[in-house]
Amino acid sequence: xxxYTWNINGIRARQEALAAWLDSRKPDFVVLEEVKAREEExxxxxxxFAGYRKFWNGSSFKKGYSGVGxxxxxxSLGDVSCEVPPFDVExxxxxxxxxxxxxxxxxxxxxxxxxxxxxxxxxxADLKEYIASxxxxxxEVILAGDMNVALTEIDVHRSQNKPGATGLRPExxxxxxxxxxxxxxxxxxxxxxxKKDLFTWWPNWKFARERNLGWRIDCIYLSPALAGKVSGVSxxxxxxxxxxxxxxxxxxx
Length: 253
Description:
- There is one protein chain.
- The chain has six helices and twelve strands.
- The chain is of the alpha+beta class.
- It has a single domain, classed as 4-Layer Sandwich (Deoxyribonuclease I, Chain A).
- The strands form two sheets. Strands 3-4-2-1-12-11 form a six-stranded mixed beta sheet, with no helix packed on it. It has a six-stranded mixed beta sheet with strand order 5-6-7-8-10-9.
- Helix 3 packs parallel to helix 4.
- The longest helix has 23 residues.
- The mean pLDDT is 96.
């Protein structure tokens, strides 16, 4: 079973690329971030794509802003349900309850400016408390999405590793560490502990992607029992339609 996260950076602009990607990769679960569309604006290319159940938390907060989606292959895990959790802000979260785990899709606020930075920290704290409650109930948890934080020095290219930059501040990194202290595993990094060029997002600079001047901010975190079932991880560097690359884990149930 494979689970992907992908910041699509506008589903309407990326609809043909997404449909082709779904057809070629055939993910069992995929979290899409930065959909930038209300549910009624999702293109028919995607809504009519066969073989998947589709759930949306569209950009009703602000037109063409934020938004997440979750696509589930119909035969993947039997009955599933999806909800927007009470702590959600700016249409950034979807929670899917499946028989073997709870999958939380997230698009963490970027946090530019003092006011939005406070929103980011509050959101991460609320998300952590929500995950803690699920773990306390004995549930297995997958947190997948664009975290908008490069957790360690190795997760950002040295050309952009500027102290005090949003996405690199101690408070943000501590907030992510607090999630991992719940027992979650940053599984892509754990399986690639010394890989310095393992990036998932690249700024809109000339040749930044070609030179791999990136950040690792798209992540999948797993509770311990699920981490023990991982048979592989990947960053899909061949898919270049968005400024983010899809990230996946393979679970052997």
